[in-house]
Write a structure and sequence with these properties.
The chain is α/β, with parallel strands linked by helices. It has helices at residues 2-17, 19-30, 39-65, 116-124, 129-142, 196-213, 235-248, 272-281; strands spanning 70-76, 79-85, 94-100, 168-173, 176-186, 192-193, 219-221, 258-262. Helix 1 packs across helix 3 (39-65), helix 2 (19-30) packs antiparallel against helix 3 (39-65) and helix 6 (196-213) crosses helix 7 (235-248). The longest helix is centred in the first third of the chain and has 27 residues, at 39-65. The chain starts with a helix and ends with a helix.
């Protein structure tokens, strides 16, 4: 219903924009009685003009409400946020990748190879799990971040130092910076858990970290939490929530801008038109 109202709104906007044009045409048609044009000819002109105006208005409304794969929202005066479909690993800048609170890198037993951290380990770090974890620990040590050591884990290959949710490690690889964030918690049975309030804090801490370290680089992040079962929310609602968090984490200055990137938006039932309409209505 809201999409239909949006289409009708754009349609009527174009009708109004063409009002002066139609008024001029009506004036001309009404004043060619002194000419030798027949009534039928004048009527045909009127029909053609009406169809032309209808088609232009319909095309404009369709263009404005078509399914989009990229939108840009000016959420804050100092921050432009772009939401787009694409492969985050093909971007250049700062790439944000979610990890668990142990920053596990074992793709044989703990990490899904097709997940974002799995692809980072497998494709970017070429399967060198220990090298990646060493780089993570180096970044955390440089920030003087201490984790809780000797935590009990179900799997013997799992790391046993737990870090608070929202902890960020910044590592460099192949001319990119990767911001790895502790997004989810594993208990001693390696069961995943996170509270919704904790998720909001994780996003907020990530934004604050990026504001300090991004510089002029463009930041790319996925739809954090869209694959987390405990949140029990659709990717559409999670994306809307992330944008709302960004809105309230004021002011966040990212000179290079922030891009939220996700593959196959339609498969996740994400409608960027709804997102755009929602935030435009808030202006």
């Amino acid at each position: 219903m809201k999409e239909n109202n949006a289409f009708l709104g754009h349609f009527m906007t174009m009708i109004a924009a063409l009002a002066s044009f139609t008024t001029l045409i009506s004036f001309l048609v009404g004043n060619i009685n002194d000419l030798s044009y027949s009534y039928e000819f004048r009527l045909a002109i009127a029909y053609v003009l009406a169809l032309f105006i209808f088609f232009i208005s319909w095309a404009y409304a369709y263009y404005q409400t078509r399914t989009k794969t990229k939108i840009t929202i000016n959420i804050q005066d100092s921050l432009m946020v772009t939401v787009e479909e694409g492969d985050i690993f093909k971007k250049k800048g700062i790439i944000c990748i979610p990890f668990n609170n142990f920053f596990d890198t074992d793709i044989e037993n703990l990490i899904d190879p097709n997940s974002l951290p799995g692809r980072l380990i497998k494709n970017v770090w070429k399967g060198k799990q220990l090298d990646l974890h060493s780089a993570i620990e180096k970044s955390l040590n440089e920030q003087n971040i201490k984790g809780l050591t000797n935590c009990k884990r179900a799997k013997s290959t799992a790391y046993t130092t737990s870090y608070p949710l929202g902890t960020c490690a910044l590592i460099e690889k192949d001319d990119n910076l990767y911001c790895l964030i502790s997004q989810t918690r594993y208990d001693e049975n390696d069961e995943l858990s996170i509270e919704r309030s904790e998720f909001n804090d994780v996003v907020g801490q990530l934004l604050q970290f990026l504001a300090k370290h991004a510089g002029t680089k463009t930041v790319y992040m996925p739809i954090l939490g869209s694959g987390i079962t405990p949140l029990k929310r659709s990717p559409q609602r999670i994306l809307n929530n992330i944008l709302s968090i960004i809105d309230f984490e004021y002011p966040i200055h990212l000179e290079g801008g922030l891009h939220i990137v996700s593959s196959n938006l339609s498969n996740k039932n994400i409608d960027l038109n709804k997102i755009e309409m929602h935030f435009n209505d808030l202006e």
